[in-house]
Amino acid sequence: MKFYSTNNKDYRVSFRDAVVEGLPSDNGLFFPESIPGLSSEFLNNLKSYSLPEIGREVMSPYTEEDIPSDILMSILEETLNFEIPLVPVDANIMALELFHGPTMAFKDVGARFLARCLGYFAVAADQKVTVLVATSGDTGSAVGHGFLNVPNVDVVILYPSGKVSPLQEKQLTTLGNNITALEIAGNFDDCQAMVKKAFLDNGLRRKMHLTSANSINVARWLPQSVYYFWAAAQVQEGKKLIISVPSGNYGNLTAGLLAKKMGLPIEHFIAASNANRIIPDYLQTGNFKPAPSIATLSNAMDVGNPSNFPRLLEVYNKEFKNIKSQISGASFSDEDISNIIRDVYQSSGYLLDPHGAIGYLALLNFEFGYNEVGIFLETAHPGKFDEVMNHILDFQISLPERLNERINMKKQAIQLPVEYAAFHDWLIK
Known about the structure:
Layout: E1 3-5, E2 8-13, H1 15-21, E3 30-32, H2 40-43, H3 51-63, H4 69-79, E4 86-88, E5 93-97, H5 107-125, E6 129-134, H6 138-147, E7 153-160, H7 166-173, E8 179-184, H8 188-199, H9 202-207, E9 210-212, H10 218-221, H11 226-233, E10 240-246, H12 251-261, E11 268-273, H13 278-285, H14 309-315, H15 320-326, E12 327-331, H16 334-348, H17 356-364, E13 372-378, H18 386-393, H19 401-407, E14 414-416, H20 420-428
Parallel strand pairs: 5-13, 6-7, 6-9, 7-8, 8-14, 10-11, 10-13, 11-12
Antiparallel strand pairs: 1-2, 1-3, 4-5
């Protein structure tokens, strides 16, 4: 299996090189040269496999030339060593809870897999690697925890000042060791643009071995397909799946589309967004128009130029008619989010976070057909947004211990302006 650049299909590299390079030099994204179909025997017997075993079946076609089978299984057992339950919320709507990992966000899956792959490659080559990652909230802490003390790897996290929750900030600025946080005086799109510019800076790359830990990296993106298979394994046989994905950079949704292309029977996807409705608008008009990001209660989805959009196009060979037939869009306001969090808690006691709330709302507004059930991705623990949640519910929600222990730790971050030159100089220094 080779991986080509979405800007040039003749630019092809191995899985290892795609992971280590992070981003092609032509500013595209790496994408598999073919999408493997999984056997009907596997797909019809998902319930008989463990989560790491499902991971091995899904990931092997992409990694087998560069990671031995036993090493891959070891990586997956370390990556997927926490529960991912499917929890009923309404009669025909369920939450896939992706927040039971170390940082209590869905990005633990991709970040931990990437960290272990990159650590394996770096140690084997005895080569120092610097990981650059931009975050709108959860990515930074997931990547930081995933790479903490990994040999031969340094991590630099760029995050927008004042635009992540206080608890998210503490999670990504209190790790130390080989993890450094840069507080950028701008928004997430500014952080992401600075990271991308670094990858295109040939002078910098001659001095440093850079790679990415955002979902632009194939080893962050591909393993997200695994939990769609795990969700299907937990659903009653014969049910048809409608999956709603709260989306910002659209790596999570695109991973789900990839799972469907590999053979997982999913009827339909919903791209659920906040006020940053770039993709819902695209699905209506066929025109992709990036815009400055808008600050909302669901801050991890405040993205005005979704970086995984080229991969979404590749899944369907850039055919808008096919894309539109498989995905519908939905967009909701902060008021919508607040109201549904309050209503669901009062009616069922289930606590939606501001991102999962958008996924749930999209299903509430979807017209289900016969034998169809809805699954929305609960992407982060509500406690990570405790200030927002406390304001909406008008009471103090309780925090899990692993979040509580970070609150009183001292923030360690380096402040930089939105200037690539300042970022470049800091990296060189």
